[in-house]
Amino acid sequence: MNEQNYPEFTGLELSPRKIDYLKFILEKGGTVKTTEISSVLKVDPSTTTKTLNELAGAGYLNHIPYRGVDLTEMGEAYTQFLIRRHRILSLLLTHYGLSSEEACSEVSRFEAFVSRDAINKICSSMGHPMFGVCGEISHENCLHEEKHH
Ligand SMILES: [Zn+2]
Ligand SMILES: [Zn+2]
């Protein structure tokens, strides 16, 4: 369940909205009900179902009949990357005058558009920090790539 097993993704595959879904499902853990996702993310149930079907079709989620969805191994590795990207970028902004809260909220608006390659380079240049402003930072793909350059 780590990023190294999925060297091919660029980090630009998903919209900000889909990122919210994956992060919520990872935070929640295990199988998550569609109704819970739609109420927490404040999206109507038919849109939620449609989005979950798209994410399942692309291999990020499994449908568990009558119970909801959970992350596939690929979905979990991808979501770990999404969290790493958020934490690296928000930490970066706190070095340039933003408070933790400001950094988290700014980054939430643009993180979907920053590539994995850029995140790995920023992470390396920051010395692979262990803690971001909203949690620990994992270093799988960024360290792995360094060994090969
Ligand atoms: Zn944050
Ligand atoms: Zn790193």
TrEMBL record:
The keyword tRNA processing does not apply. Transmembrane segments: none annotated. The keyword Transport does not apply. Coiled coil: none annotated. Residues 14-72 form the HTH dtxR-type domain. Keywords: DNA-binding, Transcription, Transcription regulation. GO terms for molecular function: DNA binding; DNA-binding transcription factor activity; protein dimerization activity; transition metal ion binding. SMART domains: HTH_DTXR. Pfam families: Fe_dep_repr_C (PF02742), Fe_dep_repress (PF01325). SUPFAM superfamilies: Iron-dependent repressor protein, dimerization domain, Winged helix' DNA-binding domain. PANTHER family: IRON (METAL) DEPENDENT REPRESSOR, DTXR FAMILY (PTHR33238), IRON-DEPENDENT TRANSCRIPTIONAL REGULATOR (PTHR33238:SF7). Belongs to the DtxR/MntR family. This is Zinc-dependent repressor ZntR, DtxR superfamily. It comes from Methanosarcina barkeri 3.
